[in-house]
Records
---
Amino acid sequence: MKFVVDTHSHTVSSGHAYSTVLENAAAAAQKGLQLLCVTDHASSMPGAPHYWHFANQKVLPRFLHGVGVLRGVEANIMNTDGEIDILPKVEDNLDWILASFHEPVFAPSSREAHTQALLNVIRSGRVDALGHLGNPNFDFDFERVLVAAAEANVLIEINNSSLSGSRVGSQPRCERIAEIGKEVGVMFTTGSDAHFAYDVGKFDSALALFDKVKVDESSIVTTSASRFLAFLHRRGRSPIAEFQSLR
């Protein structure tokens, strides 16, 4: 199994990352990726860019270093109502919305509060995927959330950075999330969560987890460009003409 799409990457614009879009795209090309999602932190995260950073992503070329570039965001889950910090008018300029908990924005609370927030995010219909759910600071009812995600066609991310030590304690939780997700019919995505170009397309830990849990390749949308683009189409997003030849 090989992953050819990285759906979670940060640039220097996030305020605590260290590479440019061009540097990330060059690294993606070296790793053999077909598509790269640019997902800088939305504006509520300390140090994150102004919303115009996201509204103006239309200036990004569709291909850099031969890698297709998707215009995205890692939005912050703001509260138990499931609100995210991207204005609806900005969504029209984006191809991909990933939503995650971050401690500086949503202070860790109770299991039920986290569960309600995730369920409401899913029900909002505004997000394509939920990021780094293995974070032990944000416990939640795995089964309720994963069933809801499967029913709403929202992807569950297996975050390579979490599995590599950035969120200590994530490994067993990610394994359980993958096990339950497999049982209830979740579709998965893979994100490097790179904050430096060398980590773009790094999926070694995610691959090992999928192998251990025996998740079928057909349930992971990042195993081919066409599979990922077909998912976006099912989500109601308009086809990206420049990517139609990708397989």
---
Amino acid sequence: MKPIIHPVFEPTTCSWQYVVACPITSACVIIDPVLDFDIAHFRVTTESADSLLDIVTKQEYHVAYLLETHIHGDHLSAAYYIQSTLWARGQPHAPICAGENVTIVQNIFAHKYNIPKEELENSFDRLFHSDETFRIGELTGVAMYLPGHTADHGGYKIGTNVFVGDSIFNPDVGTARCDFPGGDASTLWRTLQRLLNFPPDTRLYVGHDYPPSNEAAARDPLSFVTVQEQKETNKHLKDGSTEEDFVQWRNQRDHVITEPQMVHQAMQVNVRGGKMPGRSHDGKALLQYLVTVPKTLLTG
């Protein structure tokens, strides 16, 4: 049975979000939903998440799960907003889910940002073991562990489709950075080989697409290509690429690229499963922003 797949592109962070539904029961999952964050004005809005809710409403779906591939460092998760909105509309509780290694990343960033332990407890309703199965109506989903980009990174296989998050990108983009805490280029290489061992017609749905800036190569964002297309044309992984070459290139590249623009805001929200910090001021959430300063200016 083929699932119904609704890809939704969020252009500010170049993120793909997905609504994936069972054609028989109308049960669905939402994968990697995005909260809109205006970094110039420090304002969070919900247009992108509301567009996903509009699909659910118009198609008369009921949401079985809200699925995160990992703790994202480049956008804020809308999982909690969607869960709360559905609950307010009288729909059953839709659990927020991730892989079990999400706790590793939570612990790292809880220490970095002084996040109270109680704000992390139960932030995710279900943590999947590697290759654990779950039901989406008459469909079977498989929670895959796909580390390398981050220590907690995973994906979801539904039918002949794999939602790969930020492990592999479309062929002209290549692969994900590995310089976040717990990331590792050799580990990512092994993850990529696992993905490329799927049958050639398997569709790999990506977490981002960054269309070329070169006008001659311009194209619309792509949500997926097949395993065969990746093996033949991915600029980092074409047949004949070696692990040694990949690791050397990936490490050199990651050493010079800048961190995501909203990484501090994203990590503080996303380790909480999309919830805002408990601290607030004048009706606004308080997020920490780390700044490198001379040691002589530090007072504590």
